[in-house]
Amino acid sequence: MGYRVAVLDPDPYAPAGQIANIKLTAAYHDETALQRLAGLCQAVTPASEDIPVESLRRLGASCFVAPCAAAIAIAQDRLAEKSLAQQCGCPTVPFANIEDSGYLVQAWAAIDGPALLKTRCYGHDGKGQSPVDNLDDLVTAFDYRGRVPCLLEARLTAAQEIALTLARSGDGHTVLYPVAEIRTRQGHLDLCCAPARLPAAQTEAARAMAHRLAEAMDYVGVLTVKYFVLADGRLLFNELAAQPHGSADYTVDACLADCHLQQVRALAGLPLCDPRPVCAAATTHLQGVPWPPPEAWETLLAQAEVRLHLDHVAAPSGTLMGHYTCLAATPEAALALATSTRTALGIND
Question: 106, 55, 61: which is closest to 76 by C-alpha?
Fold first, then answer.
C-alpha cells in the first residue's frame, strides 16, 4: 500500500522487524524508543494485548493509537474482559477472582469442581494456566504462578470452541468474518476451520455479542472474540484477542480482504473492505511442531489447494512458527485435506 513501517520489539529476531523499514530493538516501556516511535509514526497498533498500557497512553498523546490504551487494558485483564462481557449481556464461564492467597478457599467453594487457574494478565492463548482438581491443587498452582492475581474458571471438558473476527473503523462501521471452529493443542491454537458448522441461531448470537463488545470498548481495528459452545447450544464468552489473531489466518487465502488489510485501513482512516469468503478453509498452525523432513514439505506443496506461510524459525529450539491453509468448496472438504496433510507432516491428532 506504499506505507513505511517501523517496528518496536525487544526481540532482535522479531519476524516483523525483519522486513520493516525501521526496526527499534528495545523494551516496550523504553522511553527513548517510545519517543522515537511517536516521532516516526502517524498511527501505531499493538501486535499483542500484552503491550504495557502506559506505553500506549504515552504514544497516544502524540499519534493515533488503535486499538486504544483503554481497550487494551480490558483485553489484557481476564477479570476486566469477563466483567465487560457480562455487562454486555454475554454469558461467561463460571469464574472466581483471586487477588491473593486469602481468596483461595472462597474461590474453590464458588467453583467446586474441576477448574483452570489462569493468571489475570499475560494468560491468553493457553499461557499462564494450570488445571486444578481440589483445593490443594489450587494452593500449589497459585504458588507456582507467583501468587499474582488470577481467575479460577470452571473447566468445560465437552465444549466446542469458536472464534469470530471483526474489524471496526473509527466511525463505528463494522465488518464481520465467518465464525471459525478452533481446536487447541497443549494450550496453543492448533487447527481452525471456517465457516464453522453451526446452526444459524448460534452464528447470529456470536455476531451480536461481538458487536456489543466492540461498541462498548469503542474499538478501532481488528478484534477476535472467542466462545465456548456447550452441548445444549448455549454460547459462553471466553476471551478477547485485541489484534489479528491466529484463528483468522485463513482470511489471507480464503476471503476477499484479509484481517491484516483491515487493520491497516482502520489505522489509516480508510473505509473497510468486503470480508466475504471466497471458499471454505482449514488452517493448521505449526507452533511447537518439529521441522518436517524435505519429503513431507514436497507432499504438502504438491497440493494446489494448500497455501503455506512460514513466518520464522525461533533459535535455538528450531520451533517452527507458521501455518498452512487448505482451501476447498466446503468446510468438510477443507478439513479432510487438512487431515491428510497433517499426517504427511507427522502431526498426530
Answer: 55
Cα dihedral 104, 109, 113, 119 sign? negative
Question: What is the model's pTM?
Answer: 0.93
Contact 176, 210 (CB under 8 A): yes
The answer to whether 301 and 292 have CB atoms below 8 angstroms apart is: no
Cα angle 204, 206, 208 (rounded to 5 degrees) comes to: 70
E strand or H helix at 109: helix 104-111
pLDDT tens-digit series, residues 91-131: 999 999 999 999 999 999 999 889 999 999 987 767 789 99
- Mean per-residue pLDDT over the chain, rounded: 92
Q: If residue 225 lies in a helix (H) or strand (E), which one and from where to where?
A: strand 221-229
Long-range Cβ contacts of 3-9 (<8 Å, 24+ apart): 3/264, 3/268, 6/37, 6/40, 6/41, 8/33, 8/34, 8/37
Q: Which of the listed ranges 38-47, 182-191, 319-328 does the model predict with the highest average pLDDT?
A: 38-47
Does residue 316 carry a pLDDT above 50? no
Q: Among 274, 340, 271, which residue's Cα sits nearest to residue 305?
A: 340
Contact in structure between 127 and 48 (CB atoms under 8 Å): no
Record the cell numbers describing residue 338, joined without a space: 487438512
**171 φ, ψ to 5°?**
-90, 10
Instruction: Give the pLDDT band (50/70/90) at residue 347.
Output: confident
Cell of 30: 523504553
At 9, is the pLDDT very low, low, confident or very high (cuts 50, 70, 90)? very high
Best CA proximity match to 77, nearest among 49, 98, 42, 113: 49
Neighbouring CB atoms inside 10 A of 46's CB total 26
Name the 3-class secondary structure at 216.
helix
Phi and psi at 55, nearest 5°, equal -65, -40
